[in-house]
Amino acid sequence: MITPEDISRINELGRKQKAGTLTEEERTEQAKLRRLYIDTIKGHVKTHFDAQQPTNHSPGCSCGCEHKH
Q1: CA 36, 26, 7 angle in degrees (round to 5)?
Q2: 20-37 pLDDT tens trace
Q3: Which residue, of 13, 22, 46, 51, has the fewest CB within 10 Å?
Q4: CA–CA separation, 3 vs 12, rounded Å?
């Protein structure tokens, strides 16, 4: 889970990177925090999609789903 503090730190490190003052330790920290952020977002998306119920279609529907009904 990513916290508001983690996001603030990601932004702070991003500003330092843009300014060219990022140390090697900070690069490593930035990579770990970015991975945590991406994994958190992917988890949220997966949870959302897993919660979706499949839609039942009637024969000949015009939804454009292009699968057999």
Answers
A1: 40
A2: 999 999 999 999 999 999
A3: 51
A4: 14
pLDDT (0 to 100) of residue 32: 98
- Tokens representing 1 are 């889970």
Tell me if 58 sits within 8 A of 52, measured CB to CB. no
Count of beta carbons in the 10 Å neighbourhood of residue 16: 15
SS3 content of the chain, % helix, strand, coil (to 5): 65, 0, 35
Which residues lie below 8 Å from residue 24, measured CB to CB, with a gap of 6+? none
Name the residue with tokens 């939804």. Answer: 63
